[in-house]
């Protein structure tokens, strides 16, 4: 059986025109995200990472080029796309309903979309809590009663109950302390191992990208395009102890060099624009 969740991004351009001042966010951006793979995207601030994620999610459309999901057109300049449960986003700032329990939060999507009855959705939510590491114990807790790290785990499960073809993560761990972030890395690795869902992670943390991903895509400064495709050949299952390995260090140096070069270009361009 062929896995679903393959994304093809073909010569995508995005130009914003706020108040008549054209801003080139993306230019000739082309890449492949294979089904079932974990892909991380890194690059200087403002290079178009989140813009590209938003187009895959259905929040925006390309000015030129096309995006395909499993060989079918998802978005182009003439196609008005919409968010869909086959592409689910987890943002940096969580969005759990504080008045609903963990169980009710996870079950919410299928109930509202009328895909499952309340009983079916809550049973599936319980199954996911168990599959994600014996989390049934927090099923009847409210978000305010659990840690921020646990809240983020619940948000990911709330996304997965919709059985998305691709899970889109926009810097979900940025505000976490080092210990919490390390725990979440292991949790996300476990989730990917168990569910085999295609994942696209946007991050500024290069060590995080290499630890988690099969492929790291490095973007240029604006207008963003893919500068470098790094195949992360570290074995799976991954553990945090791999971050001290020689191969991890080599991959990290490669990513740092590419990102720093683009950050320098952005800085120099900014200096010229201000002069």
Question: What would you say this structure looks like, in words?
Answer:
The protein has one domain: 3-Layer(aba) Sandwich (Rossmann fold), CATH 3.40.50. It has seven helices and ten strands. It has helices spanning about 50-55, 100-110, 120-130, 150-160, 180-195, 205-210, 245-275, and strands spanning about 5-15, 25-35, 40, 65-70, 70-75, 85-90, 165-170, 200, 215-220, 225-230. The strands form two sheets. It has a six-stranded mixed sheet, sandwiched between helices. A four-stranded antiparallel sheet has the order 2-1-4-5, with helices on one face.
Brief summary:
With 275 residues, this protein is an alpha/beta fold. It is built from 7 helices and 10 strands.
Question: How many β-strands, per DSSP?
Answer: 10
Please give the oligomerization state of what you see.
Answer: single chain
Please mark out the parts with pLDDT under 50 across 5 or more consecutive residues, or reply none. Answer: 271-275
* Count of separate DSSP helical elements: 7
The fourth-level CATH homologous superfamily is P-loop containing nucleotide triphosphate hydrolases
**Major sheet details:** 6 strands, mixed
Strand order in the largest sheet: 6-7-8-3-9-10
Overall morphology: globular
Structural class: alpha/beta
Name of the CATH architecture: 3-Layer(aba) Sandwich
Radius of gyration: 19 Å
Total domain modules: 1
Order of secondary-structure elements: EEEHEEEHHHEHEHEEH
Mean pLDDT: 88
Beta-strand proportion:
15-25%
Q: Using the coordinates shown, work out and report the CATH topology.
A: Rossmann fold
> Helix fraction?
25-40%
């Amino acid at each position: 059986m062929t896995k679903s969740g393959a994304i093809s991004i073909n010569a995508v351009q995005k130009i914003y025109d706020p108040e008549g001042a054209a801003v080139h966010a993306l230019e000739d951006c082309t890449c492949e995200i294979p089904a079932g793979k974990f892909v991380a995207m890194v690059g200087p601030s403002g290079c178009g990472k989140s813009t590209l994620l938003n187009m895959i999610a259905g929040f925006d459309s390309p000015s030129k080029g096309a995006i395909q999901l499993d060989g079918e057109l998802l978005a182009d300049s003439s196609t008005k796309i919409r968010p869909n449960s086959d592409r689910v986003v987890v943002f940096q700032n969580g969005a759990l309903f504080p008045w609903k329990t963990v169980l009710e939060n996870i079950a919410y999507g299928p109930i509202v979309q009328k895909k499952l009855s309340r009983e079916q959705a809550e049973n599936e939510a319980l199954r996911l809590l168990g599959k994600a590491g014996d989390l049934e114990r927090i099923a009847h807790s409210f978000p305010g009663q659990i840690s921020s790290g646990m809240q983020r785990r619940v948000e990911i499960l709330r996304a997965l109950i919709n059985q998305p073809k691709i899970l889109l993560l926009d810097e979900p761990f940025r505000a976490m302390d080092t210990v919490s972030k390390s725990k979440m890395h292991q949790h996300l690795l476990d989730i990917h191992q168990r569910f085999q869902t295609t994942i696209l992670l946007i991050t500024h943390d290069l060590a995080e990208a290499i630890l988690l991903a099969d492929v790291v895509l490095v973007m240029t400064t604006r207008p963003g395009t893919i500068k470098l495709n790094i195949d992360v050949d570290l074995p799976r299952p991954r553990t945090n102890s791999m971050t001290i390995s020689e191969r991890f260090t080599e991959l990290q140096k490669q990513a740092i060099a590419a990102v720093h070069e683009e950050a320098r270009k952005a800085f120099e361009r900014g200096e010229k624009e201000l002069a």
